[in-house]
Amino acid sequence: MDLGIGELLFIFILALLIFGPKKLPEIGRQIGKFMNEFKRASNDFRAQIEDEVRQLEITETEKRIAPPPPERTVSASATPAAMAAEGTSESPEKHPTASAGVEGA
């Protein structure tokens, strides 16, 4: 939308006749504030979208670079019954260092 000098002058005279010379500067300020706020909000929105896209690109790159974690296999001897029979329980109340406390304190 390209307005020439003639169109702008016509719009200004029409606004002057409708709103009057006292209200016209106030209306101009309000329009300027609205446009400034709209511009700021659109810039914030654009920055947010760009940040999200950047984060997704970083995540995708990390997925391609990092190898998948090795799958853990559970052997038959790693059952809780087998561990208890061997005396290798991992519960803190049965672990020898859990109840010993800190020495030398």
Describe it for me?
By secondary structure, the chain is mostly helical. It has helices spanning 5-19, 24-65, 80-86. The chain has a domain at 22-66. The protein is built from 3 helices and no strands. The protein is rod-shaped. The N and C termini lie far apart (81 Å).
The biggest beta sheet is recorded as: none
Radius of gyration: 36 Å
Structure class = mainly alpha
Number of strands: 0
> Looking at the structure, what is the overall shape?
rod-shaped
List key phrases describing it:
61% helix; mainly alpha; 0% strand; 105 residues; rod-shaped
Describe the secondary-structure layout.
Elements: H1 5-19, H2 24-65, H3 80-86
Question: Can I get a quick summary?
Answer:
By secondary structure, the chain is mainly alpha-helical. Helices cover 61% and strands 0% of the residues.
